[in-house]
Amino acid sequence: MSNFAFGLGVGSQSAAGQWLEVYYHAPLLNAPETLIQAVAEIVGYSGGNQTIELAESQLKALEVAFLSVDAEQQAELTEILEGTRQPLVVCILESDQQPQTTAEVYLKLSLLSHRLVKPHSLNLTGMFGLLPNVAWTSEGAVAVNELANRQLAARAQGRILEVFSVDKFPKMANYAVPEGIRIGDAARIRLGAYVGEGTTVMHEGFINFNAGTLGVSMVEGRISAGVVVGNGSDLGGGCSTMGTLSGGNNVVISVGENCLIGANAGLGLPLGDRCTVEAGLYVTGSSKVTLLDDHNQPVTVVKAAELAGKSDLLFRRNSQTGQIEVKTNQSAIELNAELHKHN
After folding, report:
1. Fewest 10 Å CB contacts: which of 2, 127, 161, 167?
2. So which residues are the catalytic ones?
3. How far is CA 147 from the centre of its chain?
């Protein structure tokens, strides 16, 4: 019995029984076949991708099953959950198909934030339709249509139900905090972000879902949905990367290793390694850029998209003419010949 992913989750439901969110403490990628078989006998799993709601009374049997296959971490989790009144679920994904339930989406987002898989490696097609809009409050997830009554009930008891956000995504830190990271403001990193070991996200930094850093980075700007930043690259204060949800279309924007996106700069094309975008300069794929040779003399003008993925480039704006210029450690003439050799 093959398996792609497994998660034992505890979450929140609306009064109508709709799942609002699911917390997976220790999701598993490629769980052992013995574990899946042991669980299947208890929860009635028969194969495929299934989301199975559990009764609290099943937890003891699950604990015994986990121990029988030496899954001690999962057994410890069931022991902690015994006695809970919160909704429980087992999510078993035989393959990485398009998700069909809210619990499946949360499992996949958790795999990303636990750094078990990297951005762009999961099928997340149709996920937005499966994620309900939720009021994230000081008392957890609340269905939006139930919020007003919950607020009134809290006031009647002399309390204030604080609403932090109304969104489809919660903050990552309430679901996963991988080792070796620093976060200035946890509300600015969504569940489904991949935050590499050694990354520091300052207070104004932001990381969306299915995006993030692969290693050591200082993030003071915005990493939009789908954008991946390589090891050793930094994003200056207020800078922005164009994600697939904000105009990048089907072009996957990425930043190579040891790059610098300057403060208040913007990026709308993939970069190779050791590239720099000058502070305040926004470069998109359609931007016209002037290539300079080793003597800072203009050689030709190309669309920035023709430089996508190339390394050792410096993007800057000419302070006198306003033109975007690109310098390279290589001869600009050689670079230009490479760009157009297939024309």
Report:
1. 2
2. 220
3. 27
